[in-house]
Every structure is written in structure tokens, then in C-alpha cells.
């Protein structure tokens, strides 16, 4: 399986009886997603809370059934084996990914460089 950047998958996030399925947004590069056994993801929640590191995803974005939020401060690496076989839908829009990239930079404490394509 090679998930694509911007796609949303359901993932099994805990083993055993506490297993929880949650949507996650793929943020790793497509080149990496083709060869690696894992992927960098941002969890998605339907519990909307506004924060500088959150990006609102409208119902339908990436196939989401309801308005949700990408929790960019919780970026993590998941084994691709915990992802459902198919994404929820098409990747989120380029504009939405740009907002997620900005929030990832903020979450990681990386100051945008003026020449960086998505500098504020």
C-alpha cells in the first residue's frame, strides 16, 4: 500500500481491548510513502477546538463525513499496517495542505524562511 500525501485513512491506534479507530491525515512525502513501512500522519478529530496548530477540515474534505480538525501538534509516525486498505476519499485540497504545512512548522518550532514556498 502506498498512501498519498493529503489522503485521510482510518487507523487502528491502540492494540488489544483498548483499540481505537481514528482518522489520520498522511503528511509524509509520496516518495517516502512508496518505500517506507510507515507514514507520518496527523490525527483528525471531530471534537473541534481552535488552536494555532489546528486546521479545520470541512465535511467532505478528504472524504470526512463531518467537519473535523487536524491536530498538527500531534504529528506521529504509524506503521502502514494499522491503516485501513483504502482512504476515505480524494486528498484534501492544496490550500488545505498549505495550512497544515504552516501548522506543522509552528508545532515543530521551525521559523519559516522568506524564500520558503509557504512562508507567512
What form results from the Cα inertia axes?
globular
Q: Radius of gyration, Cα only, in angstroms?
A: 14 Å
By helix and strand content, what is the structural category? alpha+beta
Spans of at least 5 consecutive residues whose pLDDT stays below 50 are: none
How do the SSEs run, as a string of H and E?
EEHEEEEH
Note down, in words, how this protein is organized.
There is one protein chain. The chain has 120 residues and is an alpha+beta fold. The chain has one domain: SH3 type barrels (Roll). It is built from 2 helices and 6 strands, in the order ββαββββα. The chain has helices spanning 30-35, 94-108, and strands spanning 8-12, 21-26, 38-45, 54-57, 68-71, 76-79. Strands 1, 2, 3, 4, 5 and 6 form a 6-stranded antiparallel β-sheet that branches. A hairpin with an 8-residue loop joins strand 1 and strand 2 (21-26). The radius of gyration is 14 Å and the shape is globular. The model has no long low-confidence stretch (mean pLDDT 90).
Note the topology.
Elements: E1 8-12, E2 21-26, H1 30-35, E3 38-45, E4 54-57, E5 68-71, E6 76-79, H2 94-108
Antiparallel strand pairs: 1-2, 2-3, 3-5, 3-6, 4-5
Features:
120 residues, SH3 type barrels
Question: Quick gist of this model?
Answer:
The protein is of the alpha+beta class. The chain has helices at residues 30-35, 94-108, and strands at 8-12, 21-26, 38-45, 54-57, 68-71, 76-79.
Amino acid at each position: 500500500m502506498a498512501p498519498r500525501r493529503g489522503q485521510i485513512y482510518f487507523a487502528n491506534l491502540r492494540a488489544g481491548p483498548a483499540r481505537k479507530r481514528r482518522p489520520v491525515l498522511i503528511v509524509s512525502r509520496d516518495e517516502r510513502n512508496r518505500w517506507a513501512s510507515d507514514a507520518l500522519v496527523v490525527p483528525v478529530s471531530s471534537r473541534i477546538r481552535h488552536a494555532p496548530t489546528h486546521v479545520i477540515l470541512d465535511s467532505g474534505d478528504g472524504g470526512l463525513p463531518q467537519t473535523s480538525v487536524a491536530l498538527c501538534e500531534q504529528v506521529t509516525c504509524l506503521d502502514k499496517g494499522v491503516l485501513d486498505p483504502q482512504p476515505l476519499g480524494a486528498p484534501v485540497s492544496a490550500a488545505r495542505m498549505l495550512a497544515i504545512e504552516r501548522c506543522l512548522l509552528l508545532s515543530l518550532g521551525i521559523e519559516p524562511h522568506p524564500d520558503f514556498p509557504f512562508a507567512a
